[in-house]
Structure formats: C-alpha cells, structure tokens
Design goal:
mainly alpha, 3 helices, about 95% helix, rod-shaped
Length: about 150
C-alpha cells in the first residue's frame, strides 16, 4: 500500500513539470493546444481499452461462475449418492443388530425352557413350571417371526 501511495505521489509531482515543459517547448498556445489534443485521443483510446478489458473480465467471471456452479452440483450429487449408501449401510447394520439381539433372546428363552423342565423334574412335578415354559415358548415364536420379518425386509 505504501508503494502504491508513493507511485501516485511521484506521478502527481511530475504532472506540473510536464505542464511547464510543454509551455517551454511550445511557446505558441495553438501548438500547445494541438499537443494536448493528442493526449485526449490517447486518453480516449486508453479508456476504450479499459472498458473492453472490463467487459472481457466480466465475461470471464461469468464463465468461471458457471464452471464453479457445475463443479458444485457434481459434488453435491456425489454427496447425495454417498449419503444414500451410508443410510443403506446403517440400515443393514441396524437390522443385523436387531437380528442378533432377537437371536440372543431366543437362546435365553430356550435355555429358560430347559431350566424350567429340569427344575420340574427335580421337584417331582413336570408340570410345575408349565405356565413359565408356555410363555417362554410363545416369546421364542414371536422373536422368530420378528427375525423372519427383518430378514424379508433386507
């Protein structure tokens, strides 16, 4: 920023010397006037060039924005696809966890049925725990149906 200020100050300081130099070089005002019109033509050429470059810059910026938009859309499509795959994987993991939990419950209830039958034999009455055995078998059947439903949905 300091360099820019110093460059501007240098040019601002040179302008008065150029003006006095023109007055010395062209003592007649008509000749000095002709000399100054050449600067006007040059200034208009530079202004036209600046306008053309500004338009060109605008066109390049629009092109760059279009490319950025296309890249963003492509990236978003990839993210949507990745999220879909991730959701599918999570659903499969959840289903697997449910099946594992239900199989564990089935095994526990089967063990409970065996234990209840054994306790009934030891007590001398096989039907002593018949109600508990019946409820455990019902839970086993319900859990097996749930496992089948989950397996069918996968």
């Amino acid at each position: 920023m300091k360099k820019m200020c110093s460059v501007v100050l240098v040019f601002a300081a040179i302008i008065p010397f150029l003006g006095f130099g023109v007055m010395e070089f062209y003592p007649n005002l008509e000749e000095a006037s002709y000399f100054s019109t050449t600067f006007g033509i040059g200034a208009s050429l530079f202004s036209g060039a600046a306008l053309g470059l500004a338009i060109y810059s605008f066109v390049l910026q629009q092109h760059q924005n279009d490319q950025f938009e296309q890249a963003t859309l492509k990236s978003l499509e990839g993210q949507v696809e990745a999220l879909g795959l991730l959701k599918k994987a999570i659903d499969e993991q959840a289903s697997t966890a449910k099946v594992t939990a239900l199989n564990t419950l089935i095994m526990m209830d089967e063990r409970r049925v065996q234990d209840l039958k054994e306790w009934g034999k030891n007590a001398g009455d096989i039907n002593k725990y018949a109600g508990g055995i019946k409820k455990a078998k019902n839970r086993i059947e319900e859990n097996r149906l749930k496992v089948e439903q989950i397996n069918d949905s996968i």
